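Hey, resending since the last one bounced:
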Amino acid sequence: MTTEVRSNTGADASNEAGAALAERTDAVILVGGQGTRLRPLTVNTPKPMLPTAGRPFLEHLLGRIRAAGMTHVVLGTSYKAEVFEEHFGDGSDLGLEIEYVVETEPLGTGGGIRNVADKLRYDTAMVFNGDVLGGTDLRAVLGTHAEKDADVTMHLVRVPDPRAFGCVPTDADGRVLEFLEKTQDPPTDQINAGIYVFRREVIESIPAGRPISVEREIFPALLDGGRAVYGHVDYAYWRDMGTPGDFVRGSSDLVRGIAPSPLLEGHHGESLVDDSASVGGGALLYGGSVVGRGAEIGAGARIDQSVIFDGARIGAGAVIERSIVAAGADIGPRTVVSDAIIGEGAVVGARCELINGLRVWPGVTIPDHGVRFSTDV
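The structure tokens again:
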């Protein structure tokens, strides 16, 4: 693999081209998934709306889109579609103009992109996977698209171990050569990072009204047809937020400033605590933990790399690590919650031990000492 190295002058020119193109680019965000890997958190809330570093996850991406200079956003929704419009409305509060397209039947990634075609205003569309927390320079991606006069430009991120992902090798000029499935011997460390820039005519050429995969069908067909598909390759922050562990780490990275968000500039640290929350004496909050509105943290509790949603209560001396406690849940004194999810309104009694991926569904009550892994009580 050969990496193209630009001079500073070339990079500046590319960034200027990206900034100019951003003003004439639609932002499309696919947010239709059911978030099954994050249940029970997504039973009542779509994954992109889960509180992440004090804001709905999607709001961080919208902030990056606005900062890059794009103002027209189309949300491709499906699961609990009404939640998005109820929260964001027309987008004016964020300095955006947001429109919504509801997918009534599952259409896959390619079908989901084609489904929003009628809402596009410009000849260029930047498509985002709503599950991904990223940090790439969006203007730079657009700059590559303009510089290469590409039909499609993909954001490719380099990762230390690409075996768990599909790989996308490119030539010395950045042109995509092929799309490879997961393999134990990948030929490149470049993986698909879930951001694509399309010419509008390419989107309109996707078959309408049926499920279709952009990765397995559309992109290979474009290569076979000789279309100009390029990669913008970098080492930017990238995390798929689909699992509980990744959700917790992503939120933590936002709080600590490892992952960028325009919404948190100047507010980084070991914890992010809403002004309306209460924290008892001797409680420790670190690891990029978040405490939501009206939440209560008891005296001597320890919260490590965890997300405490609005109105949750953590008892005195409890330990919460690498976990998520949903809205209104109540954790009893001296209880340990480690690598677990506690659903909305659940009640966990004193001196329980909930560890190793355990998930408590909304409204469930566990009595004092009701779940233990140790022999002592």
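The domain at 8-256 is CATH 3.90.550.10 (Spore Coat Polysaccharide Biosynthesis Protein SpsA; Chain A).

Sorry for the duplicate.
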